[in-house]
Amino acid sequence: MGAIGRSQLKGKVQTIFGVMSPDDLGITLPHEHFMLDASIYYQEPELISDMPLSRQPISLENLNWVRHHQLNSRDNLILDDEQEAIEEAMLFKLEGGSTVVDCSNRNHKRDPRALARIARATGLNIIMGSGYYVWPAHGAEMDTKTEDEIIQEFVEDITEGVDGTGSRSGIIGELGTSSPLHQNELKVLNAGARAQQITGAAITIHAPRHEADPLRVIKILSDAGADPHRIIMCDIDRTLLTHERRCELAQTGCYLEYDHFGQLDYYFMPGIDMPNDNYRINEIIRLIEAGYLNQILLSQDICFKTMRCCYGGHGYAHIIKYVVPVMRAKGMTEEEINILLVENPKCILTFI
Ligand SMILES: [Zn+2]
Question: Does 266 have pLDDT greater than 80?
Answer without folding.
Answer: no
